Amino acid sequence: MSKELEYAISNVEVEQILEKILDTVAYFVSILPRIAEFENMNTTEFYVFMYIATRKDSYSSQIALNLGLRRSSVSMILKKLLKKQLIEVTEDENDRRYVHIYLSKKGKDVFEKFLKAFESIMLNVTSKLSYEDFEKLTSSFELISRFSQLIFKSR
Questions:
Q1: What pLDDT score does 7 carry?
Q2: What burial letters (b/e) apply to 96-110, b meaning 16+ CB within 10 Å?
Q3: Confidence label for 75 from pLDDT (cuts 50, 70 and 90)
Q4: Of the residues 13, 15, 50, 54, which has the maximum number of CB atoms within 10 A of its CB?
Q5: Angle, CA 24 vertex, CA 115 and CA 56 arms, to 5°
Q6: Chain mean pLDDT for the chain
Q7: Among 14-18, 50-54, 56-60, where is mean pLDDT lowest?
Q8: Which long-range contacts (CB under 8 A, 24 or more apart) does 30-36 make?
Q9: What is the pLDDT at residue 12?
């Protein structure tokens, strides 16, 4: 680590970083579109649904690992999502220990509704930015994503 980076880290309050992260999450959550199917979900159920929606193929062990949840918690959430007909599961043809988890038709429709509403919000907000600021924002999200991955790998 460079001396400049060490100095920068030592002069930045960790509490300030945490505050900015929480503010960002709170603002983000406040702009999420209100969709009836999400109203009866708790936050963890929403995260599991979104995890499944944004991946082609999911396994419960992957979900647990990547979201930092216990496998038993993931199992309970998957049962709820199955009951709501938002996901489907199929056994792996080659190894019955693995169950593929993916969105059902209803789940895809809900996710598509969410994406359209979120896109509308993002277009409205980003239309107020200059191209340069939009590029900076995009780069910042990529940097935050890489930073988050490093934190995840270091735990």
A1: 64
A2: eeeeebbbbeebeeb
A3: very high
A4: 50
A5: 35
A6: 86
A7: 14-18
A8: 31/121, 32/118, 33/113, 33/114, 33/117, 33/118, 33/121, 35/110, 35/113, 35/114, 35/117
A9: 66
Within 13 Å, how many C-alpha atoms sit on residue 57's CB side? 6
Q: Side chain identity at 152, as an amino acid letter?
A: F
* Residue 147, token pair as written in the block: 């930073």
Measure Cα distances from 136 to 28, 121, 124, 139 in Å: 18, 19, 17, 5
pTM: 0.78
